[in-house]
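4.2 Preliminary Data

To establish feasibility before requesting continued support, the project team ran the inverse folding procedure on a target of 258 residues. The structure was first converted into the token representation described in Section 3, and no sequence information of any kind was made available to the design step. The complete token record follows.
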């Protein structure tokens, strides 16, 4: 029941903010986008599945290099808005789909991607199982998402402030937790990289908050943290106003085993 509520919150959130996610600098201009082709070395005959495509930034980046991209999202309005922005890309197809229950046959795709979305999925084990199922043998899976520190108190703090600002947030995992899921699903890690990602606070919190009261709760929660926590997340503030906050983002490339 709780998992269904999270998915409904995600649909409501992305329906309301579809245009914001297309234009969001952290989504549209992320440094990781420029690495996609280098890491994947895409081929012109490849079929690509982009799960939870959001503003379609991965689909747009890979489209010129591959045969077809299937961009899926659980939110119809998000897909429709993204299609309007990317209507010149004739090899991108838009399909409503739940990341934890994909409407595709086994062994269909050469590549599966998912960027800045898994923290919205209430059952990441189902998600990873589905990724493995639809990938061809030796197919590639590239995932990019925010990850928690391994320290429990810092992980709990991060998931708490994410949930406070975004009701559709489920949970950020640590890299260790992701690797455990990969190992049980026949996904072999090929390459990975962790970077610090800085959010200008106002843009970040206003993109998902419903009102000023919600924003104030996020501000107060972060400002009340101890110095160790503020230091880890590099919280920059002045006169009780937060300028920026920093989180860890993980980019990982896996190959499906035989």
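Position-by-position output of the design step:
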């Amino acid at each position: 029941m709780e998992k269904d509520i999270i998915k409904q919150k995600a649909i409501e959130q992305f329906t309301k903010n579809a245009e914001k996610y297309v234009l969001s600098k952290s989504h549209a201009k992320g440094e990781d986008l420029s690495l996609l082709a280098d890491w994947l070395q895409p081929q012109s005959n490849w079929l690509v599945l982009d799960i939870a495509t959001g503003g379609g930034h991965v689909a747009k980046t890979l489209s010129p290099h591959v045969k077809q991209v299937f961009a899926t999202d659980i939110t119809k309005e998000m897909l429709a808005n993204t299609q309007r922005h990317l209507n010149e890309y004739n090899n991108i197809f838009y399909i409503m789909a739940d990341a934890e229950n994909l409407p595709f046959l086994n062994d269909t795709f050469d590549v599966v991607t998912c960027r800045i979305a898994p923290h919205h999925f209430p059952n990441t084990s189902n998600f990873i199982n589905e990724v493995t199922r639809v990938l061809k043998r030796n197919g590639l899976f590239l995932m990019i998402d925010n990850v928690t520190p391994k320290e429990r108190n810092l992980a709990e703090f991060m998931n708490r402030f994410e949930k406070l600002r975004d009701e559709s947030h489920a949970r950020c995992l640590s890299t260790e937790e992701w690797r455990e899921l990969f190992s049980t699903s026949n996904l072999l890690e090929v390459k990975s990289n962790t970077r610090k990602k800085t959010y200008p606070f106002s843009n970040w919190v206003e993109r998902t908050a419903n009102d000023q009261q919600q924003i104030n709760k996020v501000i107060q929660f972060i400002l009340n943290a101890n110095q160790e926590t503020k230091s880890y997340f590099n919280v920059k503030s002045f006169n009780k106003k937060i300028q920026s906050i920093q989180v860890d983002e993980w980019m990982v490339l896996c190959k499906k085993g035989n």
